[in-house]
Structures are given as structure tokens and as C-alpha cells.
Design brief:
With 659 residues, the protein is an alpha+beta fold. It is 21% helix and 24% strand.
Length: 659
């Protein structure tokens, strides 16, 4: 009936009991950013469809030469360039094929998978050096990346191109200090320039007089990134800041009226490629930190006939900054499903939300009007989400995002989960490296691993997998105590990360958590590698102590990937195989010898093995030798046996078992 406002395309009549036909419905979706999103947003379909096929029409896109990094517009002769992906329920194969065809997602430097801190505040070098970092250290909260927002610039705080020396008296000294502390730095950039800027004359000269006033205010000039002279002029504006020692560029908003005249190339994809190439000069594995894709709300970022040129390039170069979101519960809930959905739609592995949201949302009672300091429970839950995201970056608009700015319970929760995030770097980095080879993202929707289970599709907005072994169902409702309905995929049992309680696959349960925990579960046979002890950041702390957590209930295997964190050599790395098996009453973890070499490789390591969903032990052995009770601990409350072996060469095998 027309009053229902529903269009029906296909009606199929089948025998009673015949399995339903899957719809040609997109799985996941992407958009350039979540700016202004408050609880929901329209997304564009990407690679995966539920009925197992998709057509990638690449006809509008220019051709990219990976050797020269130049593009060539296609001839306007009506030719079509299409690719049919036919993957059935093997969605992972579809992602592998996409990575083979268009290039895999970029492996970022290892430090990028730690903790980032930025806020839209007018910061100074003295604040970072004398207040902010010392507080991180005294509170024992890790920090890997310091991001400085736009107010550091002069003469314009929006699109100036020099550091304000009243705030950073010695820019080179500031960057040297940060690096000495094991930190990496990023500066906020907007792609335009004032005619009154001291660097404008040189930029206009390099551009051969082609810079023009744009739609970014009075006396504001913009760039055509597709014009080689203007692109050269634009990148030259960064040179002095890069020479001072800055690592990374956060292009906060592309493009302030700047654009690319290259046919078949979106401005985002093209300038992100340039940033990755430019950053590579001083930061191994340089990358763009920016919005991506150039479709939907970007306004006109499309191909010759108004068709978006596709999201397939950005994953090769870009950490996707998803923009300025609203700080409230519905937006937190939306991000839960968005990250895995974007990951499988485009193949993008590196996605970064503002943890805590950016602006215009809930605020703590009693704060000044306009403040976006969050209520304690919302802050704590958002930090929990960030722990199990590809990138964990605290950020907001002129408001508080640090643990010690909140009440005792929220503070303790945030500090616990930020440390957990840093401890997870070995696991996360291994997943990131695998993504760069296989196209399988770090954060995965349930249907990627359980395509035959319909609940995996129904729950895609509420829970996801962090790698193959960890199920995450973030809390998205208010209260210091909250209940969350969790569905557990069939075929495995699932052990609660924090309590040790086990749930049967193919069932649902209501999980109650305080601010100190969240619903996270390890699949039976799952193996997770973490740092044994909390550290101040990844740069200063090699993996000399590693914990291997296994969830019993099934056999399983995993691999720990290691390199020096920045190498671009295909041979400079090592892998360590880890396996769990049960034979009768004997439970065994075998850790293989490291295979491969790299500069700075850890030569000796202390391994700790934690058996969860375990039985009370009577005998514990390390490398076949019975060890005294002082070498292990048993928690009846969490049903966890923890065994620490003596330090040994990473070239030696290790076996830990119990009965």
C-alpha cells in the first residue's frame, strides 16, 4: 500500500522451510567524517553486501602509479572499468581481494597504537613540560602522542604558518624535549593562508602567482592541490616546522576552499597521499592524520559525472580522523557500530574518534554554560570504548578529558583502562600488521567471523570483535552501574576478561558492570598477548616482559609480531608462535622460539602465562619441570592460574603446563 512509503523491489516465493534469500544489503558503511553527528548518520555502502557480491565501478577514478605517485586522468571515451567481487559468505576473502587490488591498509608506527592526548585548548610549551606530562607520570598514566590544536599558530590562529613564540619560545627545544620523553608530536593544520602571513609572498612565488582568494574569509587564499606548483607551495609552508622537529600533521579540515583540479581524484585522497609522502621524510612509515574518502557531506568531492570516486585509496596512507562529534550517549553508541562498519566497507584499519566526543553534548552538572566536560559515567564509558579501538585519542572542544579532572570512581576507571590500552599494544600491533597483509581490520563486525549466524548481523551496532579472539560490548547507557545485553556467537565459550565467568556460545546474557569493568570476553582457545607491567609509553619500553592470556575450552593458536616499530624493511621483523591445547587433565601453552631478526630486538624475555576458565591446579610445570607453589598463583574467584617463568632467550622455546 502506498501509505506505507515502502518500495518493494523483489518478491520471492519458495517452498516452506527453504532458507531465506539474503538481501543485497550493504554491510557497514563509510562517510568522510562524523562532524555534527548526534546518535546516527547516513553512510555510503562499500565493499561488503550480505548476499555475497558487489560491483566496484572504478570508471570515474584516475589511474595512480605507485612508483611515481602520480595520477593520470582516464581518457573521456566512455570506457568502463568494473570489478565484480564474488565472495559469498567468505567476507574475509573479499577484504583480502580488495587489499590485493587496491593496496592494503597502512601499518602505522607502533607508537601510534598507544595513547594520544589532544584538546582544543590554547596550550603552551610550559604547560606540557611542567604540568601536563608530569601529571601523566605521577598518576602513572601512559602517553605516546601529544597533539597541539590550532591556537599555537600566528599570525592567524586558524591558518597561520609559524609557531607563536610567546607560547613556544623555543620550538626546536620543545620538540626535542618531547622526543627525549619518548613522545611523538602532531600539529593542527588548516589548508589556507592569509595574504598578510609572512610566508605568503614566498608561497605565492613558489606557486607562480596562481594562489587565489577562496571561500575562507577576507584576505584568505586557497590552494589547488592538483596543480604541481600550488601543491609545492603548500607543502613548503610546513618545512620550518618540520625542521624544528615536529613529527606528524593533523589536517583538521580539508579544505577551507582548497581543492584538487585533478579529474577522478578527491581532494582528501590526493592530499592525504601527499602528507604521507611528506611525513615519510622524517618519520618512518609517515602517514596522513585527516578525514578521508571525500564523499557524502564533503560537498562536491566527486568524480566527473557526480559519482564519488570511491574510498579505496585512503586506507593506504591515512589514519582516519572522524571529526567533531557530539558528546552524548547516543553518539557513543553510534561509534560502537561505526568503527567495524567502516573497516569492512573500505578496508580502513586505522580509525580515530574523539574519545569523549568533541562538543555540544551532555555536560557535568554545575559546570559553566558551554562546557563539554562530561558526566563522570559518560567519560568513563567513552574511555573504555577507546581502549578497544584501532586508535585511542583523548580529545574535546575546550573541555576536560583527563582522568584526574573527574571524580574518584571515574578517575580510577579511566586510569585503569588507559593502562590496559598501553598493555594491549603487542596484541593491537600484531593485528595491525596482519591487516597490512590480509586486509582483515583490527576492529571487526561479528558477521566477518560468524557469517552464518543471523544474530551476528543483528548485533552489529552493539558489539564487535577486537581481532579474532576478543568480544567487546561497550556500555552505552548512563549510571555508575549499567546492564548490557550481550550475544555470544555459537561455536565457542566466552570468558569474561575481568571476572572469569564463562558464557555459552549461541546464548545471550545481561551483563552488569560498574565503572571499573566493561563487557569484554575472550573466545575459548583465544590467546591475547599484553605487556606484563604498566609502562609510561611504548617508545621507552621494549617487550622484555609479556603476558600470554589463554581462555580454556578449546585448542587455539596465535602469533606475536614484533619489529622496531618503524622499519620499512620487509625482512626486519620477528614472529613468535603461541599455542594452547588440552589433553585430558593436562593443559599446555607452548611458546615457540622467535623467528626472524630486527634492529633492537629483545634478546631475553620473562613470559607470564595466565590460564583463564581454568581448573584448580595440582601440579604446574615449566619446560617439563615441576615448579613450587611460589612460582604460580591461583585465583578461585576468577578461575585463573598465573605462572611466571624465569627469564630466557627469545630464541628458546617455552612450555607451561598444569594438571
Amino acid at each position: 500500500d502506498s501509505s506505507c512509503n515502502v518500495n518493494v523491489d523483489t518478491v520471492a516465493f519458495v517452498r516452506t522451510g527453504t532458507p531465506l534469500l539474503d538481501p543485497h544489503a550493504p554491510l557497514g558503511g563509510y562517510r568522510r567524517g562524523l562532524d555534527g553527528v548526534d546518535g546516527s548518520a547516513t553512510t555510503s555502502p562499500g565493499l561488503l553486501y550480505q548476499d555475497g557480491w558487489s560491483l566496484l565501478d572504478d570508471s570515474p577514478s584516475a589511474l595512480f602509479d605507485p612508483q611515481t605517485h602520480k595520477v593520470t586522468p582516464r581518457p573521456d571515451n566512455g570506457a568502463q572499468d568494473g570489478y565484480v567481487f564474488a565472495y559469498g559468505k567468505d567476507y574475509a576473502q573479499g577484504l583480502q581481494d580488495l587489499a590485493t587490488l587496491t593496496g592494503p591498509p597502512k601499518l602505522l608506527p607502533r607508537w601510534a597504537y598507544g595513547i594520544w592526548y589532544s584538546e582544543y585548548y590554547d596550550r603552551t610549551a610550559a604547560q606540557y613540560e611542567d604540568t601536563i606530562l608530569p601529571k601523566f607520570r605521577s598518576e602513572k598514566v601512559p602517553l605516546d602522542v601529544l597533539v597541539t590544536d590550532t591556537d599555537f599558530k600566528v599570525p592567524s590562529q586558524w591558518d597561520g604558518w609559524e609557531i607563536d613564540t610567546s607560547k613556544f619560545p623555543d620550538p626546536a627545544g620543545y620538540f626535542a624535549w618531547a622526543h627525549a620523553q619518548g613522545l611523538h608530536t602532531s600539529l593542527n593544520i588548516h589548508p589556507s593562508i592569509q595574504g598578510s602571513d609572512p610566508k605568503f609572498a614566498t608561497a605565492q612565488q613558489i606557486a607562480k602567482g596562481k594562489l587565489r582568494l577562496g571561500g575562507c574569509g577576507d584576505d584568505c587564499y586557497v590552494f589547488d592541490f592538483g596543480d604541481p606548483d600550488q601543491l609545492k607551495a603548500y607543502l613548503a609552508l610546513h618545512d620550518s616546522l618540520q625542521q624544528d622537529g615536529n613529527d606528524l600533521w593533523w589536517m583538521d579540515w580539508c579544505c577551507d576552499g582548497s581543492y584538487s583540479s585533478l579529474a577522478g581524484v578527491t581532494p582528501d585522497a590526493w592530499i592525504n597521499q601527499q602528507y604521507a609522502d611528506y611525513t615519510e621524510k622524517t618519520v618512518p612509515r609517515g602517514f596522513a592524520f585527516s578525514r578521508a574518502y571525500g564523499s557524502l557531506q564533503a560537498g562536491g568531492y566527486s568524480g566527473p559525472v557526480g559519482v564519488p570516486t570511491g574510498p579505496w585509496a585512503d586506507k593506504r596512507t591515512t589514519l582516519h580522523f572522524t571529526g567533531d562529534t557530539t558528546s552524548d550517549w547516543p553518539t557513543l553508541a553510534f561509534e560502537v557500530g561505526y568503527t567495524p562498519g567502516e573497516s569492512v566497507a573500505t578496508g580502513m584499519a586505522s580509525i580515530s574518534h574523539d574519545i569523549g566526543g568533541h562538543t555540544n553534548g551532555l555536560q557535568e552538572p554545575g559546570t559553566e554554560p558551554g562546557s563539554t566536560k562530561l558526566p563522570d559515567d559518560l567519560y568513563a564509558r567513552w574511555v573504555q570504548l577507546g581502549t578497544f579501538q584501532p586508535i585511542d585519542r583523548l580529545h574535546s572542544n575546550h573541555s576536560d578529558r583527563l582522568p584526574w579532572q573527574y571524580g574518584a570512581e571515574a578517575k580510577a576507571s579511566a586510569e585503569k583502562f588507559l593502562n590496559l590500552r598501553e598493555d594491549l599494544v603487542p596484541y593491537t600491533y600484531t593485528l595491525a600488521q596482519q591487516a597490512s597483509v590480509t586486509g582483515m581490520p583490527i576492529v571487526r563486525p561479528l558477521y566477518l567471523q560468524y557469517p552464518q549466524q543471523q544474530e551476528a548481523y543483528a548485533q552489529a551496532d552493539a558489539e564487535y570483535l577486537y581481532g579474532p579472539d576478543v568480544l567487546v560490548a561497550p556500555v552505552t547507557t548512563p549510571g555508575t552501574t549499567a546492564t548490557t545485553s550481550v550475544w555470544f556467537p555459537a561455536g565457542s565459550t566466552w570468558t569474561d576478561w575481568f571476572t572469569g565467568k564463562t558464557y555459552a556460545g549461541g546464548t545471550s546474557a545481561t551483563i552488569t558492570t560498574g565503572l571499573d569493568t566493561m563487557p569484554v570476553f575472550i573466545r575459548s582457545g583465544g590467546i591475547v598477548t599484553t605487556r606484563t607491567h604498566d609502562v609510561s609509553n611504548d617508545e621507552q619500553n621494549p617487550l622484555t616482559e609479556v603476558t600470554v592470556t589463554v581462555a580454556e575450552g578449546a585448542s587455539g593458536s596465535s602469533t606475536l609480531y614484533e619489529d622496531n616499530g618503524t622499519t620499512t624493511s620487509a625482512t626486519q621483523h620477528a614472529t613468535t608462535d603461541i599455542a594452547y591445547a588440552q589433553h585430558g587433565r593436562n593443559h599446555t601453552v607452548k611458546i615457540g622460539a622467535a623467528r626472524g631478526v630486527y634492529r633492537g630486538q629483545v634478546e631475553r624475555r620473562t613470559w607470564t602465562v595466565a590460564f583463564t576458565n581454568a581448573s584448580a591446579p595440582t601440579t604446574v610445570r615449566v619446560n617439563g619441570h615441576k615448579v613450587p607453589a611460589s612460582a604460580w598463583t591461583w585465583s578461585a574467584a576468577t578461575r585463573t592460574l598465573t605462572v611466571t617463568a624465569p627469564a630466557q632467550s627469545t630464541r628458546s622455546k617455552l612450555t607451561v603446563s598444569y594438571q
